[in-house]
């Protein structure tokens, strides 16, 4: 009930152009359309010719209460379907499902159907929900196309992991309609109407690129077991979302979490400390700054058994080796880029946090004390202190979203002083 109310609040009266491409996930477009209409949105649908093979125009016309557009003109009477006016009409152009083929054409500016010409004409925010087989999704060509689209401000609703139509299991399933609706609602709540568009709003971090690490890493012991920690990822996800809201291009390197990717954020999954090291250092090479929020394992099993370990009668010893310190590596190479760290402490907090700040070359460190009620793992609140060269600043207990705003404010101030150097 609550989520319906929230959907309605953001979508009432909004004009959503729903683009459907030729994927088996097109069947979910019916539910997507229904949810949007129920939430009060006015929905028009444009389909690629192939999409008609997966879901009928009759179904979509009935649900959207508008005729469907597929061709540039109506062959019966020659009426022209104007891609320009469709693009102008919409507050948001949502392409769901978006196939690898359509994403590639969008990235290249190919305009060989009505859905694509409308994309090229659209002035409103554009959201794509990719749907494809796992190998197509992971292919460097598709990843490059998504990166290109993200750089141009296209919002991407990350596909989920799970069973695919091919019978394979992996990442590529279109996000669930409820997730997509929540994404669009949040996006439109961030803007006001189609005019001014999101891109015209003042964005204080426009043109800046950030890497944010978040969540818990997991270190395999054998194919069945692993070592991990209690981090939920909520703080890092909130920071990634806040930086994106301020116009930054954000790569979120994510360990294990159960969270949805924040609006406008490019997410890279990196489960182990070693994977996170690779993904974060690669993304930092092109970034203006990084926020190191992940709870990274300091140790990993020295050897990973390739078969399930069998128990014996006695004790068992697991030999661990050190992982690489991602933050320290970024700190050593950072130049005058911005680096923000976190410290979660249980005792001697100030001294430990200060030591980490200097050792890892953080511009400032966000200290959480597990001694403070409402701070730390899993919850939706946090109580933090900022420590930089100038000293310590204590914040009251706040929601993680508010903490993320304060961190983004502090990042903006530090960026000004970095550029003044
Ligand atoms: N960090 C990292 N890579 C690691 C370990 C930590 O990037 N392998 C980052 C964390 O994301 C955080 C900061 O370093 O921003 C401090 O992490 P923490 O685990 O508290 O500090 P450690 O240096 O690992 O010290 P200790 O575990 O001994 O407290």
Oligomer state equals: single chain
> In the CATH hierarchy, what is the class of the largest domain?
Alpha Beta
- Largest beta sheet: strand ordering: 12-11-8-13-16-17-19-20
Strand content: 15-25%
The total count of helices amounts to 14
As for the number of domains, it is: 2
Distance between the termini: 52 Å
Summing up helix and strand content along with how strands pair, one would put the structural category as alpha/beta
User: Can you list the ligands bound to this structure?
Assistant: cytidine-5'-triphosphate
Total beta strand runs: 21
Based on the coordinates given, report the CATH architecture of the largest domain. 3-Layer(aba) Sandwich
Give unreliable regions as ranges: 1-8, 192-202
Instruction: State the share of residues found in helices, binned by percent.
Output: 25-40%
The overall average pLDDT, rounded, is 89
Biggest pleated-sheet summary: 8 strands, mixed
**Corresponding CATH superfamily of the largest domain:** CoaB-like
Could you say what the CATH topology of the largest domain is called? Rossmann fold
């Amino acid at each position: 009930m609550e989520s319906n109310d929230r959907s309605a609040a953001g979508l009432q009266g909004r004009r959503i152009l729903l683009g459907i491409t030729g994927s088996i996930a097109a069947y979910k477009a019916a539910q997507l359309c229904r949810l949007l209409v129920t939430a009060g949105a006015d929905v028009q649908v444009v389909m690629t010719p192939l999409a008609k093979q997966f879901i009928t125009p009759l179904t979509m016309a009935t649900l959207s209460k508008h005729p469907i557009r597929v061709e540039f003109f109506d062959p019966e009477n020659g009426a022209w379907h104007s891609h320009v006016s469709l693009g102008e009409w919409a507050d948001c152009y949502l392409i769901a499902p978006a196939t690898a083929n359509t994403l590639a054409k969008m990235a290249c500016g190919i305009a060989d159907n009505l859905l694509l010409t409308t994309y090229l004409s659209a002035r409103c925010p554009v959201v794509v929900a990719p749907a494809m087989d796992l190998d197509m999704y992971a292919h460097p060509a598709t990843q490059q196309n998504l990166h290109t689209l993200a750089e141009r401000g296209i919002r991407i609703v990350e596909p989920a992991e799970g069973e695919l139509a091919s019978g394979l299991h992996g990442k590529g399933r279109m996000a669930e309609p409820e997730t997509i609706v929540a994404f669009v609602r949040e996006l439109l709540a961030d803007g006001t109407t189609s005019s001014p568009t999101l891109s015209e709003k003042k964005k204080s971090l426009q043109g800046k690129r950030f890497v944010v690490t978040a969540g818990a890493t997991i270190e395999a012991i054998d194919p069945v077991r692993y070592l991990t920690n209690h981090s939920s990822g909520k703080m890092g996800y909130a920071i990634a979302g806040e930086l994106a809201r301020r116009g930054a291009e954000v790569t979120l390197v994510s360990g294990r979490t159960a969270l949805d990717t924040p609006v406008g954020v490019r997410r890279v999954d990196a489960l182990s400390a070693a994977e996170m090291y690779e993904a974060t250092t690669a993304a930092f090479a092109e970034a203006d700054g990084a926020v190191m929020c992940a709870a990274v394992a300091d140790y990993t099993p020295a050897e990973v058994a390739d078969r399930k370990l069998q128990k014996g009668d006695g004790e068992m010893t697991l030999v661990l080796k050190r992982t690489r310190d991602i933050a320290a590596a970024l700190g050593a190479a950072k130049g005058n880029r911005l680096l923000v760290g976190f410290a979660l402490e249980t005792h001697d907090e100030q001294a430990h946090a200060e030591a980490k700040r200097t050792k890892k070359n953080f511009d400032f460190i966000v200290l959480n004390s597990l001694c403070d009620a409402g701070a730390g793992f899993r919850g939706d609140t946090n109580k933090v202190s900022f420590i930089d060269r100038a000293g310590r600043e204590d914040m009251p207990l706040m929601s993680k979203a508010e903490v993320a705003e304060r961190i983004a404010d502090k990042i903006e101030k530090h960026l000004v002083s970095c550029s003044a150097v």
